[in-house]
Amino acid sequence: MDLRELTALELGALLRSGEVTCAQAAAASRAAIAAAQPDNNAFLTVAEGPAPAPDLAASPLAGVPMAYKDNICTKGMPTTCASKILGNFTPCYDAAAAERLRRAGAVSMGKLNMDEFAMGSTSETSFYGPVKNPWDLSRSPGGSSGGAAAAVAAGEVWYAVGSDTGGSIRQPASHCGVTGMKPTYGAVSRYGLVAYASSLDQLGPIARSAADCAAVLDIMMGRDARDPTSLDLPAGGLLAALTGRLRGKKIGLPRQCFGDGLEDAVRAAVLAAAGVLKERGAQLEWFDLPVMSYAVPAYYVIACAEASSNLARFDGVRYGWRAEGGGDLETLYRRTRTEGFGSEVRRRILLGTFVLSAGYYDAYYKRALRARAAIGQAFGRAFQKYDLLLTPVAPAAAPRLGESLSDPLKMYLSDVYTVPANLAGLPALSMPCGFDGDGLPIGAQLLGPAGGELAVLDAAHAFQQETDWHKRRPPARKTAERSPSPAEPERKGGSL
Ligand code: GLN
Description:
With 496 residues, this protein is an alpha/beta fold. The protein has one domain (3-292, 370-471): Amidase signature (AS) enzymes, CATH 3.90.1300.10. Helices cover 36% and strands 12% of the residues. The chain is built from 15 helices and eleven strands. It has helices spanning 8-17, 22-40, 96-103, 146-153, 170-176, 210-220, 238-241, 264-279, 292-310, 329-340, 343-356, 361-385, 408-413, 419-424, 453-466, and strands spanning 43-46, 65-69, 107-112, 159-164, 179-182, 202-207, 250-254, 283-287, 388-392, 428-435, 441-447. The chain has an eleven-stranded mixed β-sheet with strand order 1-3-2-4-6-5-10-11-9-7-8, sandwiched between helices. Glutamine is lined by residues 118-121, 144, 164-168, 196, 303, 415. Glutamine (GLN) is lined by residues 118-121, 144, 164-168, 196, 303, 415.
């Protein structure tokens, strides 16, 4: 049996029944990582030493190999945020989510590559070289949790934990043909997640099915005193509550999400997914959501503003890398931050500092906050009428590597369908729903009201009972297809 064909829950069941041992599962994961890493560069650190032997009764996922995006603090294992500035940082504590997963018997295989500090949509801004899409190695896997999506798609781990500030779980899941979910803001504690934009950041799962995502969320969700924004939503019970029933559910399709700029293949695949949901008994309706046009500008103003404040702590004194050469304190700060951050991170810090500056605060930051409030209200009204909303995840399938770096504005605009859920704090899931003419996966997004995790997961579960897009795997590695990789900087302070 090829264990890599299984979902996380299927593997968990085999581990509990004793048909497969934890050592066999970990060995299969290690072998898959060793085979795929030279191609896709999904991992930044691979766990060494013997696999732990967890209590298999701890959760349905106990013993199942998984991995974390490298902005999630893991005790004793480097956490670099794919940045030079944190190249030598090894946390002495676990993030709350990692702590809960460890208690539930999760077996961590290591840390996953990403855009530097989660800023990007293609996983190309990593200091440690870009991640490549297992479906086509000349393409980006999406981002910023590109390593997480690529590792799950390539069968290296059965699920991964990523972060989503403006789409970073859902968009790479879409580009790699896997299922990813950003829960309601506050559903999962952000304690130990290196902050990008604190009012938007959320942790969530990337896995092979909606049921797997439910199982991971059952473990990670819940109030945590160390994150005052974490919510007291009912923890656990999502997996057990999945019914696959859609009868009587009303699903709204915002017209503005299917207009200009959307590739025909994506529109066709998402509308076909709508058709499947209708056959399962859902009522579909088009409606207008004009606030969509404010989403990208408001998101980039707010995200950059918060990033400029959050990233002020990386100054060469308290954490990570420090520029050599001495000089006074100002010089040390300037040189450390100029040399330690990549250009996308520096661009966002500058933009964020600008929109917060006294002369421009009202014109940019305050207006963005007003747009954010309007977006939240518009979604609130939509959820008075509809149980769920259905949209595309991204305007097109995975871009070619190198394309977006030269045109950051185009990259920002491609986040149009994912950023509203973060601005409004809503749960949203990306599920595979087809392929484009180049054989690249396409995803559909389901959004629910705050706290509506179950409705979102159940609709995706219903869809996945009816379709097999989520079961498709990338073709086995074809070395001839390997694209020439751009010069990759040498990694400092990790095991790869
Ligand atoms: N692409 C978006 C950005 O660059 C979202 C990133 C994220 O969700 N971390 O900010």
